[in-house]
Amino acid sequence: MRDMSLGKETVDHLELMHYYTSSTYLTISDSIEFQHIWQDIVPKEALSHTFLMHGILALAALHIAYDRPDEEDRYVLAALKHYDISIGSFRTMLQQVTADNCSALFAFSTILLVITLAFAQTHSHAEHGNPVVDLIQVFTLLQGTQAVLRSALQWIALGPLGPLVRRGLSGSKQVAPPKSDDTLTFERTLDQLQAHNERIAENVESRELYDRTIQRLRGCVKRIATYPGDRAAVMGWLVFLESSYVSALERGEPMALVIFAHYGVILHTLRQDWFVRDLGAQVVEMVHLQADDVWMPMLYWPMQQVGLRAEGLDTNQRASSN
């Protein structure tokens, strides 16, 4: 009788796909109405697009690594293997977006964002990583991707993943609830940050750059006040950053870092997500460690919001930051 047993690699792939379709898909979308798309339709798309299949398998492996810490090394290694296969093919396909592949590219761009955040939270990386650099990597990986996919939005909207983008295209009809005390406090803090930028900006270009970045952060705060836990809003701010602002972050410009610390507070609202965890608090702490004393009053509130002690601030400084 011919041996009909499956090879180890096939079994490993089936294990990962089973985990994705039974568990991981639930963690991608914050909306129950879209969960069936990530559970059923995206894996079906992956049958025709290898890069998406390996992206799904990489994501599932990272999720298992989180759920089974004793086996983390094994599954992180598997995730790296699938990620390496997927990313090269994805970049190649991105050069030739068509009606046939645009849905798979769109799905992978979302999965890629989650994968990048999840890798940053693995034990081996977290010991030596820099959370600010990790988030800059998200921007770098997806730089240009969103612009290319926006050109194919009409195709995507008419395809199997259409509901995911039609919500954004049609605009929300939901009436914003009354602002909570937390939202009002955040808005006042951004007012202070904006006023500080006006006072200390070295030139018009930097002042306007930081002003636009703060304004987009304000829009993010407004969005999550209406839709608490809206992952798309929180991640969208990061993905659509201006490259000049990211360059300022990489140079360690104080104003850029302080703005990023305030984004860390928003990211902290997603700390229940396995691929985010305490990344928001890590960002705030890293900025605090890099900042000069003169910037400490601007960092007291973000540190307070993520549960960190603000060392080096006297009572008067704390009062002036509120």
Topology readout:
Layout: H1 8-22, H2 35-46, H3 50-67, H4 72-93, H5 102-120, H6 123-126, H7 131-142, H8 145-150, H9 153-158, H10 162-170, H11 181-200, H12 204-226, H13 231-239, H14 243-251, H15 254-267, H16 279-290, H17 296-305, H18 315-320
Helix pairs in contact: 1-2, 1-3, 2-3, 3-4, 3-5, 4-5, 5-7, 11-12, 12-13, 12-15, 14-15, 15-16, 15-17, 16-17
Describe the structure.
The protein is mainly alpha-helical. Helices cover 70% and strands 0% of the residues. It contains 18 helices and no strands. The chain has helices spanning 8-22, 35-46, 50-67, 72-93, 102-120, 123-126, 131-142, 145-150, 153-158, 162-170, 181-200, 204-226, 231-239, 243-251, 254-267, 279-290, 296-305, 315-320. The N and C termini lie far apart (78 Å). Mean pLDDT is 90; it is low at 312-322.
